[in-house]
């Protein structure tokens, strides 16, 4: 007589099968072979700028995508993220708020005044006594100089303006500073990057440091660089801010995510930017 397998044992076996392919200390999927639909990302690495970098070379997420996606990003007419750049350009000169000003009232032409600015964010804000990222800096200007209501995170306006300002630095190297008062935030972000989370017990490093260049189910893992954000995600058919993507990653490992623009995500953004020092700003990038 065959005895039935207890339900608890069956459940544990299913959990083990679900988690095992994702654990960083388990045998990983083979790297993509040359000649497959994925490009040879190894040919596009840049020498690291910091001896403490976990990488031998840093590689933009662009080169972990298909040739078709790379071509879409490179063509400003076909890159769907440029609709947000155009929207941001309109908002730049739009008068808003009680002060009767626009961004252009103080900063004139964005192509000149914003060149290189976004490449250095997150950045220390002396008045607040903490770093701010670009979205926060935009809203500080709105509530201060413009006397206007801050835009909500994830709103089309804030995402478009963030994309437009970052686009003025396109091609310039990521140059975030992590010394001085930024050091504790950098260290906090580093700790969060290696912290395992969720039911799947995975950290950012589990995918983007230990297993980049390999498949996770149907996805080809990158180094998780932030130089292209906000990015146009083909899956979502819209631009996605960095903190929303981080939020999604935490949900993917069955963890309770931090809130966008929280201190935790701000520290993590600082550390991730440091990991990509020297990579060119690509905003708006296109990803899967």
From TrEMBL:
Catalysed reaction equations from the record: L-cysteinyl-[SoxY protein] + thiosulfate + 2 Fe(III)-[cytochrome c] = S-sulfosulfanyl-L-cysteinyl-[SoxY protein] + 2 Fe(II)-[cytochrome c] + 2 H(+); S-sulfanyl-L-cysteinyl-[SoxY protein] + thiosulfate + 2 Fe(III)-[cytochrome c] = S-(2-sulfodisulfanyl)-L-cysteinyl-[SoxY protein] + 2 Fe(II)-[cytochrome c] + 2 H(+)
GO MF term (any one): electron transfer activity
Record lineage: Bacteria, Pseudomonadati, Pseudomonadota, Alphaproteobacteria, Hyphomicrobiales
Alphabetical list of Pfam families matching this protein: SoxA-TsdA_cyt-c
Binding positions for heme c 1 per the UniProt entry: 103, 106-107, 141
Name of the top EC class for this enzyme: transferase
UniProt source species: Methylobacterium gregans
One GO cellular component term noted in the UniProt record for this chain: cytochrome complex
Protein known as: SoxAX cytochrome complex subunit A
GO annotation, biological process: sulfur oxidation
Positions of heme c 2 binding: 204, 207-208, 249
Subunit-structure text: Heterodimer of SoxA and SoxX.
